[in-house]
Amino acid sequence: MTTTAPGAGGEAAKTPAPAPDPAPGRPPAPGAAEAPATGSSPWQLARRELRRRPAVRVSLGVVLLFVLMAATAPWLGALGGWSPEEFDKSAIDPYLGGQPLGSLGGISPDHWLGVEPVTGRDLFARVVHGAQVSLLIAFAATAIVVVAGTAAGIAAGYFGGRTDTVLSRLMDLTMSFPSLIFMIAMLSVAKDVNRIVLMTAVIGVFGWPGVARVVRGQTLSLKHREYVDAARVGGAGSWRILTRDILPGVSGPVIAYTTLLIPGMISTEAALSYLGVGVRPPTPSWGQMIAESVAFYETDPMYFVIPSTFLFLAVLAFTLLGDALRDILDPRGGRS
Q: Which of 1, 26, 118, 126 could cross-link 284 (Cys pair, CB 3.0–4.6 Å)?
């Protein structure tokens, strides 16, 4: 009579048979959970999620188009055949107060977006060069804000104590200061200075506390993680811990916050130029063009519509892109 080893039969009876593998190429059953991707960096996660959202892809395309337009402004202006300061008296009617000849503000094969009233300057050249000025100020001011805010937030959250107290009170003081009034006063008093550099510095000085608060909160939640404690026990210095462990952990929220800062910077530059304390003529700027067009919105509405449309599209595209990146990269935000 054949005998079996003790326990062998019981284990064989209790062990379920492995489920057959699905046929190759067959889609998963409805409702089956998709395994999350492992080892994805913030940039890989952002690229994967952005490809799934058509509206965000359109916004990203518009952003890249504006950046390319600003980077190639001198060549685009030359392609149109006019410089932003060049007058074309043949495109305006001197007997009608300098109104553009033709319909839609003088749009023609010679002037693709029409001309300015009175001066006859080409709107295409001025809008393109205005994009260069507006985006340059917005990107430079955002860089100052992000670098200063990230450094202050990491230092306050990691070192704590007196460092945190001093930096936190400085954040509170800066955020409670009437920044717009101070910007107008500074830009009104300063005469013989580079307006682009001054606007970049003034806007950047008052923007860093928001980033610093976000980074400080993230740093406080990261500095007691196991891998940070292990690095500290292993003899790693503060600089190594901050750059190798803390900074990558706060990079996601910082990237998302950065893209949300840019449209605010564009709007701030346009508002200051609109109020007459920003970029000085003849340097073109979207806000300056909108301010000048107010006097002609009844007789030549296209002069107002064209720079306003470019400003609206730039702010909208950056805002939509920033909202999407915040949903993807900020661990405290929900994902749509």
A: 126
Alpha helix (H) residue ranges in 26-122: 42-50, 54-71, 73-80
- Pull the structure tokens for residue 96: 């009608």
Low-confidence ranges of the chain (pLDDT < 50): 1-39, 331, 333-336
β-strand partners of 66: none
For residues 195-233, one letter each, b for 16 or more C-beta atoms within 10 angstroms of the residue's C-beta and e for the rest, the string is: bbebbbebbbbbbbbbbbbbbbbbbeebbeeeebeebee
Q: Which residue has the tokens 């909108």?
A: 290
**How far does the chain reach from its first CA to its final CA, in angstroms?**
67
The token duo for 168 is 């936190």
pTM: 0.78
Contacts of 227 (CB under 8 A, 6+ apart): 245
